[in-house]
Amino acid sequence: MTTHTQHADQLSTTTLLRFATAGSVDDGKSTLVGRLLHDSKSVLTDQLEAVEHASRSRGQEAPDLALLTDGLRAEREQGITIDVAYRYFATPRRRFILADTPGHVQYTRNMVTGASTAELAVVLVDARNGVVEQTRRHAAVAALLRVPHVVLAVNKMDLVDYAEPVFAAIAEEFTAYAASLGVPEITAIPISALAGDNVVEPSAHMDWYGGPTVLEHLETVPVSHDLTACHARFPVQYVIRPQTAEHPDYRGYAGQIAAGAFRVGEAVTVLPSGRTSTIAGIDALGESVDIAWAPQSVTIRLADDIDISRGDLIAPAADAPAVTQDVEATVCHVADQPLSVGQRVLLKHTTRTVKAIVKDIPSRLTLDDLSQHPAPGQLVANDIGRVVVRTAEPLALDAYADSRRTGSFLLIDPADGTTLTAGMAGASFAAAAEPGAAAADDDAEWDF
Asked: Model confidence over 296-320: pLDDT tens digits?
């Protein structure tokens, strides 16, 4: 009992890292995740027994650790991953939420889902194949989504005799490519997920490598959850008016603080109306507090009686975002049906959904050389491109570079509610046009 309590206390003081894995088909991603879970003692005995039984029935002597993560029957039968699976595990040093994303080109959209909240992305490369188009695609998605840490895991080193020159050439090519996209930190690690080299335990076969194992890096990479340093933003989810005998005049605005901190007495602006007021009170968990910060869910009361409804945004008067009806953004198209110029869509931004029209698709990204293919006319599934959207009502939209929460949006099919496109407002890549800017970036600049 004591050990359980100690373990709980230990976990309560550890930090949380959200990370995503990505790689081409057959790069060994499921095996890597299975090895991480197995060697970090995060697998239950019955799970391991089931995997050992399934492996024996296939005629395999050693347990196939990929089966620990390929949870869907269709995935197990085909030996591929076809959906994002979230795994939760912990070590004494840190807790982890892992988004395991598929490798097929047609499932690139799933990586967008997995990486959108990630602070680190593990990109797998087969040492025999090197950097392929899908590797570049994953690096581009990580850069677009402003993932601050990228790990290049060069897998299957056992199949190239653990040769250092093979690893060095792949690491150099990938690092140059990712740095050109503005990825601020890239760590390359040579591994064999099947044999367990450099995943949790250091490899005895690669004495030329002196860096961390994958788990060691995951446990020690700096993670900043300090949303209070960002522009303060509060999207209103619900207006609370009890109108009871006890609270006849109570009017509060409930929601989750997306970023920053709010204080009683602070001057605020309500958008898109532009009306101003001051914060009269903040209620959190039934108590009145003087200050609240992201990602707390609170109710804010204002000194003035202003017409506010779901979808409005409360921000500090001195730091309010500009309101616009013309949205320029980089998008990843995730639907099977194309996105075309002139198409009518719904745009969902935080708690606000408005009608919109696609005015222009200026370019589509070519991943081989990062060139822009001008005026493609439409985007098809998994395309990354630039779009210009005109909304029917004004939006208080931040640049995605300033805030991952309030700079992102979805385009939705108004006919059936299908998600069409994931959008990131403002400039596309972090520092592609400014060499050296990535190195100057600091964790504090990132909005998690």
From this structure: 999 999 999 999 999 999 999 999 9
